[in-house]
């Protein structure tokens, strides 16, 4: 995708808005030449390693939270190179080959991700909790030549894909063979695809998002520039710069948030503590045991910490920052959290899979006080606020759909040129589907989601996919799914159901049916039965102003 041209004169230094072009520019200063030339062949893995100091960090690169097993930086890099050799010489993987990776967050997974990217192969991580039919859809999109799967997942994958079980003799042999057979130098363009991540896109079923090596190098540059800024501000204030981060990742590595946080941690020489699944008590114990300084989390985690007596029984004094993403953080929750944990800084961020996980973030204590905002545009990015119906670009304080442009924007949706063209225009503007505005100081605020995805504990749940599943049930005449507000989860998928005549379905039967066909986080958790699903804007209490798809806002009659 085209990258933005140099910023023209006439930009308001306070908001970043240019009245002549109607474009908002990043207020983050970026050092000249911080991004490598686009013509330079380099993989994201090689670029990450190039950012490390010549003397590798003495701290661990990875730690398993459950076992305490640690992997040093020299061991991590050696493991990546050995495995890369085996992938090349034994499996015959070549640049552009897609590898489907389906496993919980274990120590082998980041090694595999980096090894694949280092030879130009494409990493395509998927949820180990998905169903066989969901895997079949993802495989049809990304067309992998091989799959790497945890033992408990392998049998659910399509038989058409050759599978290597992680931890098996066959897998371990790859690394041992590769130790004496390093792959030859590969020429990989930055514009080549590095990863295919799965996203619900702006609407409908799961889409395969192609993320390039250029996207990932730009992301690493953004994080490096942010750290330099924080260190410089600390020095100016006569304070010590923050220490290298110990980041707890109770995040799935198949999700853009977890995938990118590992990349960030390695490129910055930090330590990433991996957890297979989120469990609140285990998170508290891990913070205490490993002296965690940075915790990425969705807003429900902050709510739990505020309410929990257990949190007060653990030594959380090492925790310096919580990086909030996955869903908007309300002002009330932020203020309540600050009152209970005054020494922990909240960093609010916003991104999409289609933007390599980054669009905006707050940096430093002062910006973190801008409650309700997701921060300022990341360096190298431009933004527009657009009236969806007319395409008119708006100024500060005015609400419209956020469009962004820059080196973080995806290559496109794999196998779906129509969806790509609808989402990214010919000038490289990515239409986020989110209703937003910038204030006079360049802070971005998310007002609502035009794309109507349900955010359950930070996961994206597409209503259209659940409606498709519900409507396949013989006892359901019609269905609509919305997000039901919930303080702990953010939103709960709630289904409004019209029964077929002669069927007396219960809510539990509806929920059980959906649970058989989708991953656990997508399950319907509330059911209401109605006589009809309103279809037109006039039939909805919102007057059609909130969304365009059928939804039962205050249906004529219902039973829970």
From TrEMBL:
It comes from the Eukaryota. The keyword Hydrolase does not apply. The lineage of its organism: Eukaryota, Viridiplantae, Streptophyta, Embryophyta, Tracheophyta. Its cofactor is Mg(2+). It is an enzyme of class 6 (ligase). This is 4-coumarate--CoA ligase. Gene3D superfamilies: 3.30.300.30, N-terminal domain of ligase-like. GO terms for molecular function: 4-coumarate-CoA ligase activity; ATP binding; CoA-ligase activity; trans-cinnamate-CoA ligase activity. Its EC number is 6.2.1.12. Belongs to the ATP-dependent AMP-binding enzyme family.
């Amino acid at each position: 995708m085209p990258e933005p041209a140099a910023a023209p004169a006439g930009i308001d230094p306070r908001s970043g808005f240019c009245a002549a072009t109607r474009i908002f520019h990043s207020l983050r200063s970026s050092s000249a030449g911080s991004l490598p030339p686009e013509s330079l062949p380099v993989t994201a893995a090689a670029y990450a390693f190039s950012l490390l100091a010549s003397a590798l960090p003495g701290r661990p690169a990875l730690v398993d939270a459950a076992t305490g097993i640690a992997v040093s930086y020299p061991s991590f890099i050696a493991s990546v190179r050995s495995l890369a050799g085996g992938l090349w010489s034994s499996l015959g993987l070549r640049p552009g080959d897609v590898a489907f990776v389906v496993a919980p967050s274990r120590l082998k997974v980041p090694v595999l991700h980096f090894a694949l990217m280092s030879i130009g192969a494409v990493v395509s991580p998927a949820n180990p909790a998905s169903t066989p039919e969901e895997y079949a859809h993802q495989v049809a999109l990304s067309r992998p030549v091989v799959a790497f799967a945890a033992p408990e997942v392998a049998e659910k994958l399509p038989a058409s894909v050759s599978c290597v079980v992680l931890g098996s003799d066959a897998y371990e042999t790859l690394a041992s063979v590769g130790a004496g057979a390093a792959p030859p130098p590969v020429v990989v363009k930055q514009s080549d695809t590095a990863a295919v991540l799965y996203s619900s896109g702006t609407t409908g079923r799961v889409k395969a998002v192609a993320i390039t090596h250029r996207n990932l190098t730009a992301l690493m540059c953004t994080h490096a520039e942010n750290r330099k800024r924080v260190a410089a501000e600390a020095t100016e204030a006569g304070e010590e710069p923050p220490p290298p981060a110990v980041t707890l990742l109770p995040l799935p590595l198949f999700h853009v948030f977890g995938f990118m946080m590992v990349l960030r941690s390695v490129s910055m020489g930090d330590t990433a503590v991996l957890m297979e699944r989120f469990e609140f008590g285990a998170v508290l114990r891990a913070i205490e045991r490993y002296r965690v300084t940075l915790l990425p989390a969705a807003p429900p985690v902050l709510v739990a910490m505020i309410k929990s007596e257990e949190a007060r029984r653990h030594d959380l004094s090492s925790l310096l920052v919580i990086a909030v993403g996955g869903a908007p953080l309300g002002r009330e929750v932020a203020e309540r959290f600050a009152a209970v944990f005054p020494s922990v800084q909240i960093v609010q961020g916003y991104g999409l899979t289609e933007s390599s996980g980054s669009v905006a973030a707050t940096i430093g204590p002062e910006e973190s006080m801008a409650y309700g905002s997701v921060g300022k545009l990341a360096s190298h990015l431009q933004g527009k606020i657009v009236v969806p119906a007319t395409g008119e670009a708006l100024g500060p304080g005015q609400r419209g759909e956020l469009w962004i442009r820059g080196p973080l924007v995806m290559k496109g949706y794999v196998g779906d040129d129509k969806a790509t063209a609808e989402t990214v225009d010919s000038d490289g503007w990515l239409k986020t589907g989110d209703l937003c505005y910038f204030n006079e100081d360049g802070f971005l605020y998310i007002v609502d989601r035009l794309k109507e995805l349900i955010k359950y504990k930070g996961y994206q749940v597409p209503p259209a996919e659940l409606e498709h599943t519900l409507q396949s049930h013989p006892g359901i005449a019609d269905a609509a799914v919305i997000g039901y507000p919930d303080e702990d989860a953010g939103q709960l998928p709630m289904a409004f159901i019209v029964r077929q005549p002669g069927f007396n379905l219960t809510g539990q039967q509806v929920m059980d049916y959906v649970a058989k066909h989708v991953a656990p986080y997508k399950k319907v958790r509330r059911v209401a039965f109605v006589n009809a699903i309103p279809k037109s804007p006039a039939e909805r209490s919102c007057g059609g102003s909130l969304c365009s798809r059928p939804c039962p806002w205050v249906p004529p009659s219902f039973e829970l």
